[in-house]
Amino acid sequence: MRKLSLLIRGVAIFGLALSLLWQAALPVQADVAPPDWPPGANPAPGAEITQVRMESEKVTLTVLPKPNGAAPGSAAVEAVFNLRNLGSAEEKMTVRFPLSFWNGSSDGFGRFPEIRSIEVKVNNRSVPTRRMESPNPSEYEDTPLPWAAFDVTFPPGEEVVLWVRYGCDGMGEFPNVSFRYILETGAGWQGTIGKAELEVRLPYPASEENVVFDEGVGFGGMTPGGILSGQSIRWVFEDLEPGPQDNLNVRVTMPAAWQKVLKEREYTQRSPRDGEGWGRLGKALKDVLRLRRGMRTDAAAQKMYQESVRAYEKSVELLPEDALWHYGFADLLWLRAYWSDQGIFSSQYSDARRAVLELRRALEINPKLPQALEMLQEVGLSAPDLVRWDGSSADYLILTATPTAKPTEIPIEALLASPTPPAPPTPTQAVPPSPAPPAQEQAAQPSPTPTPPPTATVPPNAKGPRLPGCASALALPAAAVMLWARGRKANPISG
User: Fold this and answer.
1) Which of 16, 72, 207, 331 has the fewest Cβ atoms within 10 Å of its own Cβ atom?
2) pLDDT per position as a tens digit, 91-100
3) Alpha helices, DSSP H only, in 271-322?
4) How many CB atoms lie within 10 A of CB 410?
5) Residue 373 CB partners (closer than 8 Å, separation 6+)
6) Vertex 387: Cα angle to 385 and 388 (nearest 5)
7) Which residues contact 402 (CB under 8 A, 6 or more apart)?
8) SS3 of 132, please?
9) Using CA atoms, how far apart are residues 358 and 255, in angstroms rounded to an integer?
10) With contact defined as beta carbons under 8 Å apart, do 60 and 81 qualify?
């Protein structure tokens, strides 16, 4: 899985705009900050222009069950800032809240979204905001920044409470969405931030299944230190002088995708003899594991994968003549066999073999099932040493391959200590495969115990990388990843 490098800048900052290099433009939020430097001023790095300190802040980002329009996810944000003027003179300033930030790139789809429906209160009194523009302090100076501006007076020694509420959209692609909150702009106030509390609320209990800590799942790494509690993820910082490393990034499963998992889990508990319900649960779990180019591989994902396998097993056990669920099971097994890295999953070959069994069974039941035919063609193109497909008939080579034991490994210490290289160990004699069970039994069998990877019959001129993680002579063409990534991973099929 390849990470996406993105450049972002914050939505929901008050005041001073900082010139920073980010990763792909995201609609995000940020801390309050004092206004722009006065015209002609050129303060040295680290200089303060205000005696107002942010003593505390509490930010709550509530992920909404349904997104705003076509957005991948949306949230309502409420922030409370307690500020105190530590100086002896009253300070009046126009505090400005950027509605959007342009840094020369969009959100990845040519859009530059703004936050929605901003409301502001000062000491519990609603204040009007006015839209204004100012020069962009970054290298894209010809693109002005839009702001919501309002006036605030900070009497000496007194606390002023700023309250802000607005709506924003996240960034991502199915099945995950990311939200960000920029803390570093708070560094413009006097001294440190006394205490910063950030809370992200989900529409259901937060868990490692729906809060994605895996850094390989796009849009930057998850901010460490978050504590899962009930429906929330919480971060607390004390005496903080915020920098770029302190900015919040939270990545979650899209609510609609996770709500399907919860719905089908509940249904299968109520109706354990409904094969359709088990199939829907298997597919809902598969959908939150599948990425555009790969699959989730963290510890929570491995458990969900096993749950999806069990759900499909129940489905094809209860509905042995349903071609669609056999195909869906094959798709799940092939997803892991194809994308797993060695050391994360150790049974790629057995998953691939079982995927082909389920695919063959689906086509025995319905030889014209479009999804199964498409998958057969893709497997044949990407892995012709597993399945040979000429458009009219298939040769399932992987099902007739003869398993062999893996040669014993020689410790490196033995090699270094030996005056002459030792002879390679003698491979164990090939063991003929057991007779295949009837087709319906194959579909209902539980996941096989991982076995030593087999050696397939390979054409004399076959070349290409090995199936990931397999110590066998089974070869895949180099174009496999490209073909699969362009097809099925970008457009998952039902089943």
Assistant:
1) 207
2) 988 777 767 6
3) 275-289, 299-318
4) 14
5) 363
6) 90
7) 430, 431, 432, 433, 454, 455
8) strand
9) 31
10) no
pLDDT tens digits, one per residue of 383-441: 888 899 888 888 998 888 654 444 344 443 443 443 444 444 444 343 344 344 333 33
Q: What is the DSSP letter of 489?
A: T
Vertex 275 angle, CA 271 and 281, to 5°: 80
Residue with tokens 């019959």: 457
Q: Are 116 and 148 in contact (CB under 8 A)?
A: no
Residue 159 to residue 122: CA distance in whole angstroms:
11
How is 58-116 classified by DSSP, letter by letter?
EEEEEE-SS-STT-S-EEEEEEEEEEEE-SSS-EEEEEEEES---SS--SSSS-----E
How are beta strands 388-389 and 176-182 bridged, if at all? unpaired
Nearest Cα to Cα of residue 20 among 137, 108, 105:
137
Per-residue pLDDT tens digits for 440-456: 333 333 444 344 433 33
Residue 235 pairs in a beta bridge with 198
Tens of pLDDT, residues 129-181: 988 887 655 555 566 767 778 889 999 999 999 999 999 888 888 999 988 88
State what percent of residues in the chain have pLDDT above 70.
63
CB-neighbour burial class of residue 57 (10 A; exposed 0-12, middle 13-18, buried 19+): buried
Q: Give me the phi and psi of 2, to 5 degrees please.
A: -95, 135
Strand stretches in 159-210, DSSP E: 159-169, 171-173, 176-182, 193-201
276 close to 315: Cβ distance less than 8 angstroms:
yes
3-state secondary structure of 440: helix
Query: How is residue 15 written in tokens?
Result: 């005041």
d(CA 292, CA 300): 19
Cβ atoms within 10 Å, residue 223: 21
The C-alpha atoms of residue 234 and residue 198 are separated, in whole angstroms, by: 6
Burial of 335 (0-12, 13-18, 19+ CB in 10 A): buried
Residue 455, CA distances (Å) to 183, 262, 433, 484 in order? 55, 41, 12, 23
**3-class SS string, 361-415:** HHHHHCCCCHHHHHHHHHHHHHCCCCCEECCCCEECHHHCCECCCCCCCCCHHHH
Cis bond before residue 437 (omega within 30° of 0): no
**Phi-psi region at 90: left, alpha or beta (left = phi > 0; alpha = psi -120 to 50):** beta
Supply the pTM of this predicted model. 0.71
Long-range contacts at 343-348 (CB < 8 A, ≥ 24 apart): 343/469, 344/297, 344/302, 345/297, 345/302, 345/469, 346/450, 346/469, 347/450, 348/467, 348/468, 348/469, 348/470
Domains of the chain (ranges; CATH) run 9-37+50-253 (2.60.40.3680), 257-412+432-486 (1.25.40.10)
Residue 179 contacts residue 59 (beta carbons within 8 Å): no
